[in-house]
Design goal:
Layout: E1 24-27, H1 29-34, H2 39-44, H3 49-55, H4 63-74, H5 87-97, E2 103-104, H6 105-115, H7 127-135, E3 142-145
Antiparallel strand pairs: 1-2, 1-3
Length: about 150
């Protein structure tokens, strides 16, 4: 009998069978579009000032091109994730900067720690808090995905 292949769209990791550092998260752009929101607009509005002219060129509204611009031009800029950036927005920006490749809680936590290394007040970046934020419905369409 042939082995049945798992559907790649089905979540394989659940809270009961995986640790938070094994779970992976990404932005569900399909759900964003289905809700009537423009994924390209959501991403374009997060492009840093230095790269906004580059995003305006031909094909600049293609989602993959916008993600590439963020990953190459904005990711390391100090103002991409500033001290006053809300936590959910910062997580969203980290996912965008990764090209929306699924990220573990640990990778997200490391990105936040790096972005906020010079912040003088403490922020709760615990895996438990990050998991709670990502595991419930949110305005950024971030969700658990198959790793």
């Amino acid at each position: 009998m042939a082995k049945r292949r798992a559907d790649p769209k089905v979540q394989r990791n659940t809270r009961s069978d995986a640790r938070p550092d094994e779970l992976r998260y990404a932005v569900d752009f399909d759900a964003m579009e289905a809700s009537g929101k423009s994924a390209a607009y959501f991403v374009r509005s997060r492009i840093c000032a230095d790269a906004s002219a580059r995003a305006g060129g031909s094909g600049g509204d293609q989602l993959k091109d916008l993600l590439k611009i963020i990953a190459t031009d904005c990711k390391g800029k100090p103002d991409y994730i500033g001290a006053a950036t809300p936590l959910s927005e910062a997580i969203f920006r980290i996912l965008l900067a990764s090209g929306n490749r699924p990220q573990s809680i640990r990778n997200i936590q490391d990105g936040l720690t790096e972005a906020w290394a010079t912040v003088i007040y403490m922020k709760d970046l615990s895996p438990e808090l990050l998991s709670r934020l990502l595991d419930r419905p949110n305005a950024y369409f971030m969700k658990q995905v198959a790793g």
